[in-house]
Design a protein that fits this description.
Helix content is 67%, strand content 2%. By secondary structure, the protein is an all-alpha fold. It has one domain. A two-stranded antiparallel sheet has the order 1-2. It is globular and about 60 Å long.
């Protein structure tokens, strides 16, 4: 189905391009008809929609960095504890939805799974393991050393998400052969946490528990987004405000996507019910964010465009760099000052890693890896498919 702003027949050329191409990312989506005098309007709308998701990703990246920092201080009081629960209700589900929205073409998604997700995972997880082992050896690490896992196969770092994206894109075509892929994704996400294999769940639980959001993103089209954003804005604002008491009164572990129900102290029935509640809250709050986010280019758009690099940078430096800063400036002595410090640190962090030079260095490294590992003809085919692709 074409978007509602398609001109009436007779005014349009026969040239049709995938909406994904016009939006600045690879993957299908509804077709866009190029119509002589109205081409400028169509281009403006597609560019606005690209900025919409850049802005959404930028805010989620900020919450990733802020969440990693505030997680250290969540025992300080109700404010910090509620904030971390609030953030964790929706930030990774929104990421998974946006990843799915940019993965409309099953074949291209599968073609890019290795170079777009697995290669970056191996690179960043390898660096993370080396850094972690070195810091623990030198006695410089004091946070999360008990759960650190120096394994490529069972990641304990935030790079689990890249591994999840690899599997989603690899099996996306197979998933959508089923009659009800969204229902199947939800059932898998609910049942995975019944497993007693805790190490497996830490590494791969998110592959299943976040799958429903990725699937929803694939199924969602531009018309659905347009209808969502046409709703009165107070609806989105009310949903996000109601999320605060919801986060306050629900258990911290409800949002857990990497630990099984038993490890979180829930019975199987409790875990299943809480997972369903988490899914409902995440979809509602994610929809509210997409509805309220500006669709124009903002100072945050560049952060969203550099999402993979910013995500990696915040994983490496948050919270460890902030702990050093807070110690040096004695921010820990005042809770309000500490909260302001965490906010500013997270903001500076994502802006810093959105500087284009980091993306250029990353591209240089990844091109070298591809040159070593891939046959020349495969490299060229992948290069063409990645030209308009979004990293996360």
């Amino acid at each position: 189905m074409l978007p509602p702003w398609k001109l009436r027949e007779g005014f349009c050329s026969k040239e049709i391009v995938p909406a994904g191409s016009a939006f600045g990312f690879s993957g299908g989506g509804p077709a866009v008809v190029l119509c002589g005098g109205r081409l400028e309007r169509i281009w403006k709308m597609t560019k606005e929609r690209e900025y919409l998701f850049d802005n959404v990703k930028a805010v989620m990246l900020f919450l990733v960095a802020f969440g990693h920092v505030i997680n250290v201080y969540m025992g300080n009081g109700a404010v910090e504890y509620t904030l971390i629960k609030y953030i964790y209700l929706f930030h990774m589900p929104v990421f998974a939805f946006v990843t799915g929205y940019f993965s409309k073409n099953d074949d291209k998604a599968r073609d890019r799974a290795m170079t777009g997700s697995l290669f970056p995972y191996l690179l960043f997880q390898g660096i993370y393991i080396l850094m972690g082992q070195t810091m623990i050896l030198l006695g410089l690490a004091s946070f999360n050393t008990d759960v650190f896992n120096g394994s490529i196969l069972l990641p304990s770092s935030a790079f689990y998400y890249l591994l999840a994206v690899f599997f989603w894109k690899l099996f996306q075509k197979d998933l959508f052969r089923f009659r009800y892929p969204l229902l199947l994704s939800a059932v898998l996400g609910i049942l995975i946490s019944l497993t007693k294999q805790e190490e497996f769940h830490i590494g791969y639980g998110a592959v299943f528990s976040l799958l429903v959001f990725f699937t929803a993103g694939v199924k969602c089209d531009a018309e659905m987004i347009r209808k969502l954003r046409a709703l009165p804005r107070w609806i989105g604002a009310v949903i996000l405000l109601l999320g605060v008491p919801f986060a306050y009164f629900t258990p911290y572990a409800m949002h857990s996507i990497r630990l099984n129900y038993e490890s979180e102290g829930f019975s199987n029935l409790q875990g299943i019910l809480l997972r369903i509640l988490f899914y409902a809250a995440a979809f509602l709050m994610g929809a509210a964010i997409i509805q309220l986010m500006p669709a124009r280019k903002t100072w945050l758009s560049g952060v969203g465009k550099a999402s993979l690099i910013v995500y990696a940078g915040s994983t490496f430096l948050s919270p460890h760099a902030y702990l050093l800063v807070a110690s040096a400036l004695h921010l820990n002595s005042n809770r309000a000052l500490n909260l302001i410090g965490m906010f500013l640190f997270s903001l500076v962090l994502i802006l810093f890693f959105s500087i284009p030079v980091f993306g250029q260095i990353y591209d240089l490294i990844m091109n070298g890896i591809k040159k070593i590992l891939l046959a020349p003809e495969k490299r060229e085919a992948i290069r063409k498919s990645e030209q308009a692709a979004d990293h996360l």
